[in-house]
Amino acid sequence: MHRISLMLAASASLLVASCGQGDVLHADEAVVNLSPVEGNPSAGYMKLHGGRVDVALVGVTSDDVLRMEMHETTEKDGMASMNMLKDIPVPAGETVTLEPGGKHLMIWGVGAGSKQRGLLKMTLIFSNDDRIEIDAVLKNPGEAAPAKD
Ligand SMILES: [Cu+2]
Question: Per the confidence metrics, is the pTM higher than 0.85?
Fold first, then answer.
């Protein structure tokens, strides 16, 4: 009994500590796993942290890609498939994770300059017209990273 309450207290303080930017809409932990096959899309992941009001991510752009789409992987009868998303809701105060097997970005044609820098600059556009510029870390195939999209 005593041990359980100690554990709960520890995890509660972890939650508070990880919430550095309080109730400001922001994104972090952005990575792009570059496709091992030339011409195939790369997959982008990140965490979206909601602000004071409910918003939705309605678009993602970058000067240095051919095309970028928001997708969701779903599994039905053991078959995984991807749907294009028009938006990704980010409720106030909640964290939405773009991750392998779930919501993700599909990115075609990442430019050589970004690959050299190891970073892809992208702009997240939200339904309340907030624009957030982030640098996603580019990971080459085989580097330690989420394995599939
Ligand atoms: Cu996809």
Answer: no
